[in-house]
């Protein structure tokens, strides 16, 4: 495998790693929402708000 093949392989490995981390972070977020009942909302202004199961916001 030449230098170009090695670079292509390393790019594929990095892309796969990022995809797996994002997938698992999403799974953990769903689990956290089930445990504490809080849903995190990102507002248009970039702020973070939370919502409880009753619908109240903070």
Describe the overall structure.
- The protein is α+β, with helices and mostly antiparallel strands and 58 residues long.
- It has one domain.
- It has one helix and two strands, in the order αββ.
- The protein has one helix at 3-36; strands at 39-42, 48-51.
- The chain has a two-stranded antiparallel sheet.
- The radius of gyration is 19 Å and the shape is elongated.
- The mean pLDDT is 79.
Question: Descriptors for this entry?
Answer:
58 residues, alpha+beta, two-stranded antiparallel ribbon, 1 helix, 2 strands, 59% helix
Count the DSSP helices.
Answer: 1
Largest sheet strand order: 1-2
Coarse shape: elongated
Residue stretches low in confidence (pLDDT < 50, at least 5 long) are: none
* Mean pLDDT score: 79
**From the alpha-carbon coordinates, what is the Rg to the nearest angstrom?**
19 Å
Quantity of strands, as a count: 2
> DSSP strand (E) fraction?
5-15%
Largest sheet: 2 strands, antiparallel
**SSE order, one letter for each helix or strand:** HEE
Helix content: 55-70%
Distance between the termini: 55 Å
| Domain tally | 1
- What structural class should be given to the helix and strand makeup? alpha+beta
């Amino acid at each position: 495998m030449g230098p170009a093949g090695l670079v292509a392989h390393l790019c594929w490995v990095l892309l796969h790693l990022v995809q797996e981390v994002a997938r698992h972070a999403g799974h953990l977020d769903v689990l956290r929402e089930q445990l504490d009942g809080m849903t995190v909302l990102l507002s248009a202004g970039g702020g973070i708000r939370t919502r409880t199961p009753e619908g109240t916001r903070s």
